[in-house]
Amino acid sequence: MTDPLDFLAVDGLLDDEERAIRDTVRAFADAELAPYVSGWYEDGTLPHDLGPRLGKLGLLGMHLEGYGCAGTSAVAYGVACRELEAVDSGLRSFVSVQGSLAMFAIHHWGTDAQREEWLPRMAAGEVIGCFGLTEPDAGSDPASMRTRARRDGGDWVLNGSKMWITNGTLAQVAIVWARVDEDGPDGGIRGFVVPTDTPGFTATEIHRKLSLRASVTAELSFEDLRLPADAVFPGVRGLKGPLSCLNEARFGILWGAVGAARACYAEALAYSLERTQFGEPIAAFQLTQRKLAEMVVAVNNAALAAVQIGRLKDAGTLSPAQVSYGKLANVRAALDVARSARTVLGGAGITLDHSVMRHMNNLETVLTYEGTEEMHTLSVGAELTGIRAFR
């Protein structure tokens, strides 16, 4: 019989290790996260022991090699993101920022000393990282950043600010990208490993959010923050460094969106079979069945896209434009599913007793961060035409 929650048997495309990771993360998420997430969302917080608990499962930097990281396939990492976001986007964001932004930056661009100092503790969840690229006036155009780093003797001195930084007030280490206004090998946009207890570093939590509330978001400020010479990433200059990290995070997002969509569809299906109107369950009505059919098509199409993009990544042939395709298509589909699922639940859908509106609100942010819908549309368009419609 067809499984309503995996209509095209997409998980049959996973290998044994990937299915085992799916089962482990799903069991953990169902038992340890799902019963509490609505409270975290309502309170705008996360438990302080979340990092070590996720680290114990091997989920932090799980697709990286060495330094205490699990070294799994890209698809296995995607499956883990899917199962976490089926509970809440904020939980997947925690893992994405830790592993695909902060840890990936150190792993890919850092020195051996930086890797050995930070990565084992970050993989264990003992040290939380954040990633400072976006600024109040530099979102889709990161090249216009105003944060500056200058040489002062053998040190670096940072001044500026970053905005919308996930895990900002939780982090013990920040990856900060800043412009160095000088010619020669030190010039351009550079990345720095910044311990957050460094004098001149301030993280201020952003409150009054209506989305991603089970996620800690901050503004970072740097005032004459002094770092040693070896705090900089030596091997990368320009936007290549931060954009490579963002591409990693977008991969997790396109998988995570499948989990959010699946959760909304599953809740709508279950509710429609239980809710009775005019003497029969609302699932018996044609308009409800149309909504459910459209939702299951969207969920399964997104799931298939995620698996194919994951296989391309594991084969080493994945392009940034293909990641943009996945992020654009899957987040858009998930948001449509969430909105439709909310209508099936009627008034009940607006409360935290159900997950659909929480997912819907979260996905409004997911649509924007790690590249807006507009920027990913133009990235795909540039790949198709060979013409960049943006600077």
Write a structural description.
It is a single chain. The protein has 391 residues and is an alpha+beta fold. It folds into 3 domains: 10-128, Orthogonal Bundle (Butyryl-Coa Dehydrogenase, subunit A, domain 1), CATH 1.10.540.10; 130-231, Butyryl-CoA Dehydrogenase, subunit A, domain 2; 240-385, Butyryl-CoA Dehydrogenase, subunit A, domain 3 (Up-down Bundle), CATH 1.20.140. Helix content is 49%, strand content 15%. The strands form 3 sheets. A 4-stranded antiparallel beta sheet has the order 2-3-7-6, with helices on one face. Strands 1-4-5 form a 3-stranded mixed beta sheet, with helices on one face. Strands 8-9 form a two-stranded antiparallel ribbon. Strand 8 and strand 9 (280-281) form a beta hairpin. Helix 4 runs antiparallel to helix 5, helix 4 packs across helix 7 (240-274) and helix 7 (240-274) packs antiparallel against helix 10 (356-366). The protein is globular, with a radius of gyration of 21 Å. The mean pLDDT is 96.
